[in-house]
Amino acid sequence: MNARFCLEPMTEADLEWIEVHERDLHAFPWTRGNFMDALKAGYVARVLRMDDEVVGYAVMLCVLDETHLLNLSVLRVHQNCGVGRRLLAMLVEISRDHGATQMFLEVRPSNAPALALYKRVGFTLVGRRSNYYPAENGREDALLMRLAL
Residue 27 carries which DSSP code? Predict the structure, then answer.
């Protein structure tokens, strides 16, 4: 049986659920206020439903011919089974619809599953941001990656 996927705009009503899962998924999670600010600023913020169950969410900023993926999260139980790739593909389509020719993101070097996903999709390493992320023992660099659309 094939699952049905639907990407919907994130709303304020989603934020309580997202806040709970964000804390489970990330050692240094976005706050409810971060998501609220993104909604108020008009960022592309979406939730991914699979057969009517929310399984992931994402936030990205579209500026001129670029998009910047700020947050892409998939519930642990749905990781490593193609859900993240599907969500990312949908975001690429939204980016193209906005006229973007490239997508950027930052990722922790320690986040091997995310790095593998981004490389599989075709992102390439274009830079490194020193001491970008908070980490358990200080700060962690970010890898800056780019996907030509």
Answer: S
118: left (phi over 0), alpha (psi -120 to 50) or beta: alpha
Task: Give yes or no: 118 in active site.
Answer: yes
Domain spanning 5-148, CATH architecture:
3-Layer(aba) Sandwich (3.40)
The one catalytic residue in 118, 133, 136, 140 is 118
Contacts of 27 (CB under 8 A, 6+ apart): 136
The full set of domain ranges for the chain reads 5-148
pLDDT tens digits, residue range 42-53? 999 999 999 989
Enter the pTM of the model. Answer: 0.92
Q: Is 132 a catalytic residue?
A: no
